[in-house]
RNA sequence: GUGGCUGUAGCUCAGUGGUAGAGCCCCGGUUUGUGGUACCGGUUGUCGCGGGUUCGAUCCCCGUCAGCCACCCCA
């Protein structure tokens, strides 16, 4: 181990069990997105570094896996998908009927110090609707995230949606006399409200001309703070999803490109970081691609959701079942007589052609040993091929019942 | 980037200033063509790496790398 190679910090090996777990998450992501009528797309893993600077400024470079390629281009491993999406949507926006409902599952890279729920490499599910500014779109995305969580096996006791609206804050700021050029600073204070000492927050608010009390009162009355929030909640209530949503104006999603409603999916009781998050970003497509197109979307990473699944009873059982199911074989052919190996191989081949997941011992081994292998590989059925061939024995491994049949009738007997 | 904790067989860990153990896993066996339990046996480690103190360090000290946790950040 000392002399061997290790993965780079923040990168993961996916052994078969891990890979099966990852694929399980991917399958859920894909299934729910398709159920909502989204189509899948993909973008390059490597992009010009400027694409990310355009959106987030130069500081972003510190958290990018970036380098100069052999053509002297400044390039970066993608840290997120939205800028690529904005470029794609803008470039061929005339080719698609609006709204676009696109999803993607891909790997992303961020040069950050890893900790629980965060690595330097991760997979992320991105789901966006472009070309439609109605709050119905925001609600649709939230509904999708709720259904996704339910598909994993979570209930209203396990997670909730925190909903907010940046416009509620910009309106509030304007009413309160905060200068336009101080808006970003103002939102930053709101973002840190829950994590920072009240005195510190109050001190930051003073030059902006807003009192902490006024902000607290505004948050306390969040339910009525925004017409958009009201519409989204009515929409979700009509789907029977009202209980999952909680208005929480303290959510403003960092300094991102969001322009309206924003939401996050949080676990209840585990205290993990946000499982998913998203919101409306009506000006980004124009910023990147020069085309006006309203948009909203959200993303879910694989790390937090997998942690949460593993720490939750029902979701973890579903995951475990899926892992076993994806790795188990259907039938194990037992070569009971080494002289019949050729015949056994024909049986194996026929079974595989018929679609059964089939395996067998590559070298001669005792029958008991072969049954053990069948057991360990999760086979439901063992077929014994021996001296009595062309008669074979079919054994149900769970019930231990067995019957014999002519090889010609094998497929019917199974 | 900052701070705290940790680093011993593939995994989970124990252990002592005098060059190391357990359980699990894995492999083999418990004789003749039938499996999940049981029993027996076996493989594996430069005790993360480098340096220092010491007659001698896996155990003490320093550094480093890595991991975990928190902060920053979180697109």
What does this structure look like?
The mean pLDDT is 91. The protein has 15 helices and 16 strands. It has 2 domains: 16-321, BirA Bifunctional Protein, domain 2, CATH 3.30.930; 328-413, 3-Layer(aba) Sandwich (Rossmann fold), CATH 3.40.50. α1 runs antiparallel to α4 (135-152), α1 (16-35) crosses α12 and α4 (135-152) packs across α9 (227-238). The chain is of the alpha+beta class. Strands 1-5-6-11-10-9-7-8 form an 8-stranded mixed β-sheet. A 5-stranded mixed β-sheet has the order 13-12-14-15-16, sandwiched between helices. The chain has helices at residues 16-35, 49-56, 82-91, 135-152, 166-175, 183-192, 198-205, 212-220, 227-238, 284-289, 302-310, 313-327, 341-353, 367-376, 410-413, and strands at residues 39-40, 46-48, 66-68, 74-77, 100-109, 121-130, 159-165, 245-247, 261-267, 276-280, 295-301, 331-335, 358-360, 381-385, 391-396, 402-406. It binds one RNA strand of 75 nucleotides through residues 1-3, 6, 9, 52, 55-56, 60, 62-63, 79-83, 108, 110, 112-116, 118, 195, 253-257, 273-274, 277, 299, 334, 336-337, 366-376, 382, 384, 386-387, 393, 395, 397, 400, 402.
Structural class: alpha+beta
Total DSSP E strands: 16
CATH topology of the largest domain: BirA Bifunctional Protein, domain 2
General shape: elongated
Q: What is the name of the CATH architecture of the largest domain?
A: 2-Layer Sandwich
Unreliable stretches: none
Strand order of the largest sheet: 1-5-6-11-10-9-7-8
Beta-strand residue fraction? 15-25%
**In CATH, what is the class of the largest domain?**
Alpha Beta
- Please state the oligomeric state of the protein chains shown: single chain
Our measurement of the CA-to-CA distance between the termini, rounded to an integer number of angstroms, reads 47 Å
User: What value does the average pLDDT take?
Assistant: 91
Query: Number of DSSP helices?
Result: 15
CATH superfamily of the largest domain: Bira Bifunctional Protein, Domain 2
Helix content class:
25-40%
Strand count, sense and barrel status of the largest sheet are:
8 strands, mixed
């Amino acid at each position: 181990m000392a002399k061997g190679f290790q993965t780079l910090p923040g990168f993961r090996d996916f052994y078969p069990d891990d890979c099966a777990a990852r694929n399980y998450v991917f399958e859920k992501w894909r299934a729910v997105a398709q159920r909502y009528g989204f189509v899948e797309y993909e973008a390059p893993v490597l992009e010009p570094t400027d694409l990310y600077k355009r959106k987030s400024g130069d500081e972003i470079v510190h958290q990018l896996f970036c380098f100069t390629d052999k053509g002297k281009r400044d390039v970066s491993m993608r840290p997120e998908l939205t800028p690529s999406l904005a470029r794609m949507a803008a470039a061929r926006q005339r080719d698609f009927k609006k709204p676009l409902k696109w999803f993607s599952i891909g790997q992303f890279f961020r040069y950050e110090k890893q900790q629980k729920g965060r690595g330097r490499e991760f997979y992320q599910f991105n789901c966006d609707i472009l070309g439609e500014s109605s709050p119905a779109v925001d609600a649709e995305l939230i509904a999708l995230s709720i259904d996704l969580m339910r598909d994993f096996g979570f209930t209203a006791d396990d997670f909730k949606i925190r909903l907010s609206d940046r416009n509620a804050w910009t309106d509030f700021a304007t009413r309160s006399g905060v200068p336009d050029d101080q808006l970003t600073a103002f939102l930053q204070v709101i973002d840190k409200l829950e994590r920072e000492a009240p005195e510190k927050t109050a001190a930051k608010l003073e030059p902006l001309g807003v009192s902490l009390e006024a902000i607290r009162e505004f948050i306390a009355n969040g339910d009525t703070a925004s017409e958009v929030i009201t519409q989204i909640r009515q929409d979700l209530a009509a789907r029977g999803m009202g209980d999952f949503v909680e208005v929480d104006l303290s959510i403003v999603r960092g300094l991102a490109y969001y322009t309206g409603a924003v939401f996050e999916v949080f676990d209840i009781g585990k205290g993990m970081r946000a499982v998913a998050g998203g919101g409306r970003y009506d000006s980004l497509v124009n910023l990147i691609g020069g085309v006006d197109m309203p948009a909203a979307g959200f993303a879910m990473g694989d790390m937090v959701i997998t942690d949460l699944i593993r720490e939750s009873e029902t979701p973890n059982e579903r995951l475990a079942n899926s892992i076993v199911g994806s790795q188990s074989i259907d039938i194990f052919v037992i070569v009971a007589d080494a002289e019949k190996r050729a015949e056994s191989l024909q049986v194996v081949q026929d079974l595989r052609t018929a679609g059964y997941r089939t395996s067998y011992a590559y070298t001669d081994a005792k029958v008991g040993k072969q049954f053990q292998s069948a057991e360990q590989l999760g086979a439901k059925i063992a077929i014994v091929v021996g001296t009595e061939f062309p008669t074979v024995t079919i054994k149900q491994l769970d019930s231990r019942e067995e019957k014999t049949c002519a090889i010609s009738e094998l497929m019917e007997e199974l």
